[in-house]
Design goal:
It contains 23 helices and 16 strands. By secondary structure, it is an alpha/beta fold.
Length: about 575
Amino acid sequence: MGLAKTRNVLQGTGGAPGIAMGTARVVDCLRLHFIEYPITPEQIPREIERLTHALEGARSELRRVRHELSADRGPEHLYIIDAHLLILEDSMIVREVTGFIRGEEINAEAAIRRTTHKFLRHFAAMKDDYLRERGRDIETVMERILHQMAGNHTSPLPLFSEKSILVAHDFSPADMLQLQTSSVAGVITDLGGKNSHTAILARALEIPAVLGMGNATSVISDGDLVVIDGARGVVEINPDNETLDSYGRRKQRYDYLEQELDKLRDLPAETPDGYRIALQGNVEFPEEIPAILTHGGEGIGLYRTELLFMNRHTLPDEEEQYAAYAAIIRAAAPHTVCIRTLDVGGDKLITTPDPTEEANPALGVRAIRLSLREPVLFRTQLRAILRAALLGPTRIFFPMISGLQELLAAKACLHEAKMELSRQGVAYHHGIETGIMIEIPSAVLIADLLAREVDFFSVGTNDLIQYTLAIDRANDRLAHLYEPLHPALLRSLKIVADAAHAAGIRACICGEMAGDPDYLPILLGLGYDELSMSPLAIPRVKRVLRRCPKSEAVQVAVKALSYDTASDVENYLKREITARFSDSFD
């Protein structure tokens, strides 16, 4: 009789929601181990030649994968592959690695590792979750080069005969896009977070995923029975029958709810008393757009352009940006795409026109401040957006506006970009709608002045909470103070909505509050016209919306604004949700 397998419960990060059960298949997709050793000056040219051959091999392999995926997945799934090709083609990679080979007189593999660690430290220091995860792109590309140096050629993951849970140190975008979803029930990784490419693609493919486990590949054995909860980030290894039955029942309920939510896809996002709200998606990649449309979304309320400027030594030119924006607009057509201009600081660009160290980058030269300091960079982006906007409904909006003078300066740059295109005889969208992000308290207090100059407001609740409450979102010790229902935040949301409607423009929200069904009655009651969120959140918010009369939501919002503390508002909401909408919020 064999030994009973050890039961274990692990906690990671929920990458993609859903419950999955199956046999663990541990696959070593990326990680290779090399020894660092010294070389003589005479051996340096040979090591550089080995690096050059490995780079070309990695490029050829990725181009092959891209070609195969273009037929199987369609063009909307190729952006991440293209981003990795750009990294491989960047001369910075060669300079950094060869710098270590020459300067430290070490073998090429060790130089690649040192270069990887250098960039990982750079990205790890970033406070923005999305940008911090982009360091994994560098690591993934470097691992591909190392595989070439070892003579290994990556291939699609094997097709298993039964529904399996794949366990790996990490998955590259190519790995994820080549998954045979018919035989993969879920994925578990040592690395990654909710904003990693693995998580983004798992959500797009609707494969439950738990990431960032740290030691999953060493704790989970091939053949273990594994259950994963992709929403809570929990992994159960070899659960007992009672636990397995419990997860089985939860999976049935989850699958039933998903089927019910799917019925809402083509129904309007409208309250029982006829009030319409546009439910849209936040995206970084074209790969995410199909998920918006299949879940009943009505376009893109926030397209983040930052990733075009990351993981590279040279800034993207106008043609490269145009191609990226055009791909997004075409994929979303006939729905609207709202493109946010560059929202990073100089500290977050590998190459910045004015590299400076700042004691507090979150309050420094970033977002619209960086764009206005670098007008050529700014106009290049604006020109590309204006040209691409001819391909479908498009809006443009500026981040981190703190005052009227800043907004007028941004609009002047937009006008200059239009004039440049006109003088060159280049076609562009002359009447593109323009908006701003409301994420700073000063913008809230003068919302009435700002509303006269734009076509819409888009509230970034994540940063507005952070700046209003003086809380660093990345500081775990302050997590308990990050309160979306804080009276100051609710009053700010009311001021913004009222100012927008008084000026006859739309009031939108694109922060995390928009995708939480619990907050829908308040946002609806305050009069917000558009909500933009994670694509998977759209059906749940729509379900609540279609059961929540606007008249009742107004009563909820008015009452919520009367409370003194966030906990009072939260307790009130729980009571109202139970009394009015209990069957909508499960």
